[in-house]
Amino acid sequence: MARPMGSVRLKKASPVTLAVGTALCIFILYFLLGSSTPDFSASRKASAAAHPLSPPTSPFRRSTGGGKLKPPPVTHYNLNNVTITPKPLENRENILLLTPMARFYPAYWDNLLRLQYPHELITLGFILPKTKEGNEATKELQKRIAKTQKYGPERDRFKSIIILREDIDPPLVSQDEGERHKMQNQKIRRAAMAKARNSLVFSTLGPDTSWILWLDADVIETPPTIIQDLASHDQAVIAPNCFQRFWNADKKEMDERPYDFNNWQDSDTAGDLAKKMDPDDILLEGYAEMATFRTLMAYLSKEDGRLHEEVPLDGVGGAALLVKADVHRDGAMFPSFAFYHLIETEGFAKMAKRLGWQPFGLPNYKVYHYNE
């Protein structure tokens, strides 16, 4: 019997062909719907920045074809909705962790990874000089960033990371500790540091930032809860005590000693010295040639003291310093010039006080500086 015209006999597909076809369909769907990077948790997706600073900055361009481009977006931020509280963890407040860096210390980065504040709420900001050492530090920093952000576990990845390179020539070629701390080098060195700090904070401070943690690149050991601990005091500017571990040859054991002498309470002697100075002269701390007899927080630490005991300060150092974002938003910066005969972080403390923000310190809460 003849088949009706137009009918087609379908050949039955083999099991191998069906399996190959199914696998190919699955691959195409995965390619189209999947992502080239590991999936992130809902909390990270909600807090991750589309741009490290905030809104798009590309200019609007007219269409050269017949189509019409959408106008550029207008982004609204209500700073009244940005909380700055003594419970930043519970309120999921955004942290900006800033570090001027001339050398890269692996222990510094390892310490960052140990921070127990959610990394998806931490933006890292770095500024490095355009020197041979600065170039090497940048390479090492980028290696660690790639390892953490691309290949590391999700819990270690930070919200965003910003790297700036300085546009000024460094005043000192060598970053050796002995050279950095020579008295005759202090004014030019700290003026350059002040400019770097100002460039860093005002280039990275975002509209959703609650707290800024300043942490020097050679601070290699902090409590993993340092952000929560310092913020719990609800102070606008607060500094822990910076020490240094070393081998004590007399005791034949590891010991520790004070390191940062820029956290201090003022003295009448310092005031009298300032009155005799020229307008551009600065007071320096920790030098026998300029005895100020200030009360140094470095020497207020007690072995049996309360960990969270507070003392008011007139000068602060930058080894580790937690600052409410509103302090910088109010205009407090690091003077690169003689400001009441103070400069850089000590000048910042004076400026903050003039704006109504009283700095405090924690004599018994310690962070540790690298020992060269």
Automatic annotation (TrEMBL):
Q: What's a BP term from Gene Ontology annotated to this protein?
A: cell wall mannoprotein biosynthetic process
> Which GO cellular component term is one of those annotated?
mannan polymerase complex
UniProt GO molecular function? alpha-1,6-mannosyltransferase activity
Major localization listed first in the record, in broad terms: Golgi
* Keyword Aminoacyl-tRNA synthetase in record: no
Q: Where is this region: Disordered?
A: 48-72
**Subcellular locations according to the entry:** Golgi apparatus membrane
Write down the membrane topology. Answer: Single-pass type II membrane protein
Q: Which UniProt keywords apply?
A: Golgi apparatus, Membrane, Signal-anchor, Transmembrane, Transmembrane helix
Keyword Transmembrane helix set for record: yes
Q: Which PANTHER family match?
A: MANNAN POLYMERASE COMPLEXES SUBUNIT MNN9 (PTHR43083:SF6), MANNAN POLYMERASE II (PTHR43083)
What protein family does this chain belong to?
A: Belongs to the ANP1/MMN9/VAN1 family.
Name of the protein this chain belongs to: Mannan polymerase complexes MNN9 subunit
Organism for this UniProt entry: Staphylotrichum tortipilum
